[in-house]
């Protein structure tokens, strides 16, 4: 990351108009209306911008939420221009969001992400130490942006507890606890026959670059969505959470590490 990149909280209408430009560049879809983001910003929301000099190159948009029992910060969108990705900027922005949310008294931040996007999973679960607490199949319904078009919009809902610090994971991949096996062709095959709810932990592989698979072989991408969806549904229904993700760079595969809630 270049030294010229800074992160700051957005406070003006003009900055929100610039945020719309970044949003359109990232997702190729209509951006959030400024009257909505401005209202959220002035009612407990936290909106951050990342700048290379005077140019906004990323943003993080979150607003106040309440589930009937506790308030929380709902982190809705994190967008970074392609030329600035894979430099640790997303982690830096989430850490700034974490600090500001704690200052404002929020006990938790929640957000959703596509569980087949390994880079997002690694940031959320491994680097930030949040957990995948809920599985939301086809959460947004049909979407037409370039990242989601043509597939179900399955999501994990993240819960990031701001009241405690998580310890790093010490797990190692156990090939005897894989709930998906891979054919030589790379096609995923369900291994749910070995699933035993009495065990404390299980592993689920996902591809390292799901978007590349989608571009090159959409049927294989749909297979990944369907097979992982069946496995995730079983795990969450049995009281497991996505606790971490472990990378196998040599195989271009990442592995979700699922634990029972009372074991995490």
Describe what this molecule looks like in 3D.
- It comes from Lentibacillus juripiscarius.
- This protein has six helices and twelve strands.
- It is an alpha+beta fold and 264 residues long.
- It folds into two domains: 5-161, Gcn5-related N-acetyltransferase (GNAT) (Aminopeptidase); 175-263, no CATH class.
- A seven-stranded mixed beta sheet has the order 1-2-3-4-5-7-6, with helices on both faces.
- Strand 2 and strand 3 (55-66) form a beta hairpin.
- Helix 5 crosses helix 6.
- The longest helix has 20 residues, at 218-237.
- It is globular.
- The model has no long low-confidence stretch (mean pLDDT 92).
What are its keywords?
alpha+beta; seven-stranded mixed β-sheet; three-stranded antiparallel β-sheet; 28% helix; GNAT_N_AcTrfase_prd; EC 2.3.1.-; GNAT_dom; acyltransferase
Write a concise synopsis of the structure shown.
This protein has 264 residues and is an alpha+beta fold. The protein has helices at 13-27, 34-41, 89-103, 118-127, 210-216, 218-237; strands at residues 5-9, 46-52, 55-66, 71-80, 108-113, 131-136, 155-161, 180-182, 188-190, 201-207, 240-248, 253-260.
Question: Would you spell out the secondary-structure blueprint of this structure?
Answer:
Elements: E1 5-9, H1 13-27, H2 34-41, E2 46-52, E3 55-66, E4 71-80, H3 89-103, E5 108-113, H4 118-127, E6 131-136, E7 155-161, E8 180-182, E9 188-190, E10 201-207, H5 210-216, H6 218-237, E11 240-248, E12 253-260
Parallel strand pairs: 4-5
Antiparallel strand pairs: 1-2, 2-3, 3-4, 5-7, 6-7, 8-9, 10-12, 11-12
Helix pairs in contact: 5-6
Domain N-acetyltransferase: 5-148
Organism: Lentibacillus juripiscarius
Protein name: GNAT family N-acetyltransferase
């Amino acid at each position: 990351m270049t030294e010229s990149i800074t992160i700051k909280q957005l406070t003006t209408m003009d900055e929100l108009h610039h945020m719309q430009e970044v949003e359109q560049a990232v997702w190729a879809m209509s951006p959030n209306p400024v009257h909505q983001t401005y209202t959220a910003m002035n009612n407990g929301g936290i909106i951050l911008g990342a700048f290379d000099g005077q140019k906004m190159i990323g943003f993080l948009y979150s607003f106040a939420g309440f589930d009937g029992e506790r308030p929380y910060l709902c982190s809705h969108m994190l967008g970074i221009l392609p030329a600035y990705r894979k430099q640790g900027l997303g982690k830096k922005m989430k850490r700034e969001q974490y600090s500001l949310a704690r200052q404002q008294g929020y006990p938790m931040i929640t957000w959703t992400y596509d569980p087949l996007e390994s880079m997002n999973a690694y940031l959320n679960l491994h680097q930030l130490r949040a957990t995948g607490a809920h599985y939301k199949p086809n959460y947004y319904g049909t979407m037409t942006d370039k990242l989601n078009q043509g597939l179900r919009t399955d999501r994990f809902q993240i819960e990031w507890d701001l009241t405690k610090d998580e310890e790093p994971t010490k797990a190692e991949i156990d090939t005897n606890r894989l709930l998906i096996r891979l054919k030589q062709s790379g096609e995923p095959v369900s291994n749910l026959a070995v699933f035993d709810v009495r065990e404390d932990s299980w592993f689920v592989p996902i591809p390292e670059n799901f978007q590349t698979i989608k571009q090159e072989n959409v049927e294989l991408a749909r297979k990944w969505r369907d097979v992982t969806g069946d496995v995730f549904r079983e795990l969450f229904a049995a009281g497991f959470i996505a606790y971490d993700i472990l990378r196998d760079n040599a195989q271009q595969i990442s592995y979700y590490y699922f634990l029972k809630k009372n074991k995490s």
